[in-house]
Amino acid sequence: MAVFLSSFVNKIDKKGRVSVPASFRAALGADTSGIVVFRSLQHEALDGCSIAHLELLSQSLEKQDLSPEVFDLIETTIFGGAVQLPFDGEGRISLPQALIAGVGITEEVAFVGRRKTFQIWNPATLAAHESEARSKARAKDISLSKIIAAVTQSANGDAA
Questions:
Q1: pLDDT tens, 11-54?
Q2: Could you give the CA distance from residue 40 to residue 62 in angstroms, rounded to a whole number?
Q3: Predicted TM-score of the model (pTM)
Q4: 31/157 Cα distance (integer angstroms)
Q5: How many helices (H) and strands (E) does the chain have?
């Protein structure tokens, strides 16, 4: 499966439909007929993925020793709140009013790639979140070269 990259802002039309970015539809695969969305547990946004990714999550939960409380929280918030949204002939989806109202989306949505999943935000809320995230990343001195160097060092140390 390809990864979801980049950010796109699209308008919601008068019928409540929004175009899913073409690159996101391509990452989902040609045989995918839609997406799954649910409210994020961490942000005022919607999380989106393929049904295959949600099935992988379900299988992964079965292999973990989670407390009944945590298991119930995940099932209630993610699976219970998830909605499958089919694509129309033009690659659009209709976002349920209850979901978008819950995260403050009105006339536009920002699609944000997050590797194997993506998120759907109110563009203004996303801008504030991105600004805060960049500040935190700088404060923690996070960089791609350091991540790659740490993995390379670990791999070389494991081989020795």
A1: 999 999 999 999 999 999 988 999 999 999 999 999 999 999 99
A2: 21
A3: 0.88
A4: 42
A5: 6, 8
